[in-house]
Amino acid sequence: MNAVTIIDFIGLIASIMALIFILNDRKKTLKHDSKMTLLILLVLVIFFTFSNILEWAAITDQLDIYEDYFRVLEPIMWMFFLYVSLMNLQIKKRQESEESLRKSREALKKSEMRYKSYMENAPVGIFITDSSFCYVYANTLACQMTGYSKEDLLKMSIKDLLPMTIPIKAFNNFNTLEKRLHDTSKNPILIQKESILKKKDGTEFYALVRTVKLSEDTYMAFCLDITKRKQMESALKSTNEQLETGKKLAEAANHAKSEFLANMSHELRTPLNGVLGFSHLLRDTELTQEQREYVEDVIFSSENLLNIIEDILDFSRIEANALEIDEVETNLKQLVENAYRITKFKAEKKGLSIRIQMDENLPECVRTDPYHLSQVLVNLLSNTVKFTESGRISIRCQLLQSDKQKSIIKFEVQDTGIGIQKDMQGKVFEYFTQADSSITRKYGGTGLGLTIVDKILKKMDSQIHLESEPNHGSTFSFELTVDNC
Amino acid sequence: MIIIQESEIIKLLFGLGVLIYLYINKKKIIELPHYNLLFLAYIIVLTGWILTVLEGIFYEQLLNLIEHTCNAVSSVILCLWCYQVFIKDDRK
């Protein structure tokens, strides 16, 4: 066997393998390609195979007579195969583009239907206009808003919906809108504004109009009827104005009341001090037992009245925001002892034991408002004496924390009195409030004492705390931060 | 002694005609799958046809060997093209 025979044999094997590849994948390929092309290719490869067989056979001098026919047919087969392949390619491409076009059309149709559905069912009125602002589309809600039919609206322009009652303003607005919408430097343009529009029946309505430039000659406006909102805003504005007027009147009345109270308290206190002074003088004169008792009653009643007037005066000062804290150097121990001494007489007179506990480490001198701190302590102590029938009262003063500059001191006033129910504990610090009306009847008072204490302490950046249990007593406490001297 | 068969001349002329057709439609041909393999197979087989004619004029033995080699290589490339189109691409 020579070299040519071997080469021809290799060619023959390659042709047969090509034939096998085509036949082996015939079904799959048919799905994608035309039958004709495949057939031609099959014939070509068969031809190639035969040609190789003949080449191989020609060497062996067995089939030489057929070789000439095959020689001529070979390029014709190639030509035919290439031609059919190209034709098939063109057909395939056309089919693909047609399919693609069909799908695009379907998608476009669906999209258009969706878009129409959105537009028709949108919860706002939608208008589409051309470059001359004539309506080319209006949805159902837009027709309902304006009262026009779709056909009517499509014959109209934006100007037809602007009210004639305010023509200048409306047309100025329209001209501005037109200019801004035609401004091509800003794209997309979006303008939102509230406008008054005219209905078919001539009535007007407020609308929030949002205009968008869709393209060079198309504008879309979303329109929301805000008439009700405008009416509510107007009503709200009117109510607010009324409330404001009412508030001013109430404030003026309150101020007048406070001023009246302050003046009256002052006017009452002056003659009352006269009554008290002369009653004291009268008590020191020679009197019968009965007369002495009357004088004692006068003094007691006058003192009570003076206390009430003092409370009202303080209250009016607080109400008028006239309460001012004036911090000066104060001997704290002495201040607490003074408050203790003031109350001691009343407590002992009532048969109560009263004791004072002072922390040994308390600073001698601190900067605070002695007048108001004393007022707080005396008020708290007087309160405990008032509401304690038996038992004891104690005042404690404890240093919680101290450094060179500041000290935190805790004040605590405790009694074994009637106590306050849990649900009433917050109310005792309100104006003119006592735990219940029977207490007012039994113990008297204005219900201002604890309120004044609370207000003063708040002004001094502190806070009153109350722990109490009915029939077991109460504990009032507060912490005060003071500067050291 | 020059021995040229008529069938060989006709085949060569047809082959050159196909080449012209390929040249005219080259933009379309490149859209065929693995067109380069197909084109190469044709060029080699055309070379074989040219050599068939030439072997009748000179170097008979050598050109005959090259002609047969061209036919075989063309068959192999066509086989490869069939493999790419019908086997490998289908797997993808």
Summarize the structure.
The complex is a heterodimer of chains A (485) and B (92). Chain A has 485 residues and is of the alpha+beta class.
Keywords:
heterodimer, A: 485 residues, alpha+beta, Helix Hairpins, 7-stranded mixed beta sheet, 5-stranded antiparallel beta sheet, B: 92 residues, mainly alpha, 4 helices
**How many beta-strand segments of chain B?**
0
> How many structural domains in the coordinates of chain B?
1
Order of helices and strands of chain B: HHHH
- Proportion of residues in β-strands of chain A: 15-25%
CATH superfamily of the largest domain in chain A, called what?
Answer: Histidine kinase-like ATPase, C-terminal domain
Name of the CATH class of the largest domain in chain A: Alpha Beta
Give average pLDDT of chain A, whole number: 82
Order of helices and strands of chain A: HHHHEEHHHHEEEHHEHEEHEEHHEE
In the predicted model, the low-confidence regions of chain A spanning at least 5 consecutive residues are: none
Report the major sheet of chain B. Answer: none
Low-confidence stretches of chain B: none
Q: Calculate Rg of chain A over CA atoms.
A: 53 Å
- What is the subunit organization of this protein? heterodimer
The termini of chain A sit apart by 128 Å
What class would the helix/strand composition of chain A place it in? alpha+beta
